Amino acid sequence: MKRAIVIALLTWALMPLTNAQKYEMTFVIPMRSQTDSVLYIGQHYRDQFRILDSARVGQRNGEDTYTFAGKRKWETGIYALLQKEAKKALVDFTIDGSQRFTIHLTPSIEVADPQKDIVGSPANQVMFTYSNKLEEAKRRVRDIEQRKKSTDAKVKEAAENDMKLLTAEMIEFENSYLEKYKQYRYIQLTEMFNGPEVPDEVVDKTTYYLTHYWDDVELTDHSLVYTPDLFNKMNYYFFGSLYHADKDTICKYADNVLHRIENDTLMLRYFMDFIMPRYYRSTKNIGWDAVWCYLVRQYYLSGKCGWALPSELTKKQQTLEHLEKSLIGAMGAELWMADTNQSTNPKDWISSHRFPQKYVILWFWDPDCHHCQEQTATLKELYDSLSAVGNKIFEVYAVGYEGDVAKWKKYVREHQLPFVNVGGSNVNIDYQEAYNVHGAPTMIILNEERRIIMNKVLPTRSILPFLKRYEELRN
Q: In 19, 26, 181, 312, which residue has its Cα 20 to 30 A from 246's Cα atom?
């Protein structure tokens, strides 16, 4: 009985070896001025890599060679040749079928002739031939675009004609090439991630594109998380196509993909772990904090993010409740603060809300901050110019974000700041907590109802266009 158990355990322990194959993958690079002593094979994971193997440099016929050899089972897919411990990818390649091949690269890390410089791997020949064709097309496009700028009408006409011919050529090439080599994983991924074609008859092309963006992607296929394609598509969707969209639009199209994977923990975490910090940390994009709050409520606090520990959920809940106080549309907390006289009597303090102007700009600034000094100076110029023509449509409630009251008062006096200048510790509430102020400068704009309509720092030149646009949208 004991002998049977031992045999069973040994059999189980040796099972991975029975599935393993001998592999020998060699990359040849002509001698460079800076030779890496070690290169690595990495697997893509979002914008990073997982190290899977390493090889030391050797020399052959005046060239650097890196041979990765051993015994293991490599999954079919896209991998990267890396240097400096995964900090930089030299080139992507594929493991598909053969695990014994040689790829000869040029000093600039480009394959010169896939049919000649790749031995033992038809899949890599297919991959590099395709990518080289695309690079050639990009170079031709750049040349055509340059000629289209010409003032010579004939040159421009010839360039436009060349663009039409190139477009037709590439469409024909891609259609035939993808069909001919569709058995290879690289080609399958290329077809999957090419993106939706928008029919000519569609009027709202942007809506159609965003709605059908994920149609061809098999999001149930977990191997996609180890490709550069899924990351690039995810990154472009959220932070390319939706970059300038408003909060409601971003949330709508975020749900468009996240609802498809909300029951798939691995895939949902792949997306959420990347997009959530970007929305939370943004200091420039209006409405992105609201997107973060929406996603927390819809996915984390609803129990869909099963990997999240209770402590993480508690922290997100607290951050959510804190952020929601300062989101666009929220009622701005009324501040009562002492001005430069620094009276301790609350009756002397000034309200942030009780001004005749339609808008109030809450300006949290620090006299020791160089950027604050520049922005405050330009804000003063705008304020003075509007006052001079009797068109001061906003008041500036300038909060000195500085513990040294004497220094703040001195700066206000020397620079003759015409705002409602308040500061110090004489205040009714914690304004940092109320308005999520964690640095200077911070700008909050309140409307006539004293609701928040903007909670990011706008350049001075953008304040009036912003208010004009806000009023146009309301009418």
A: 312
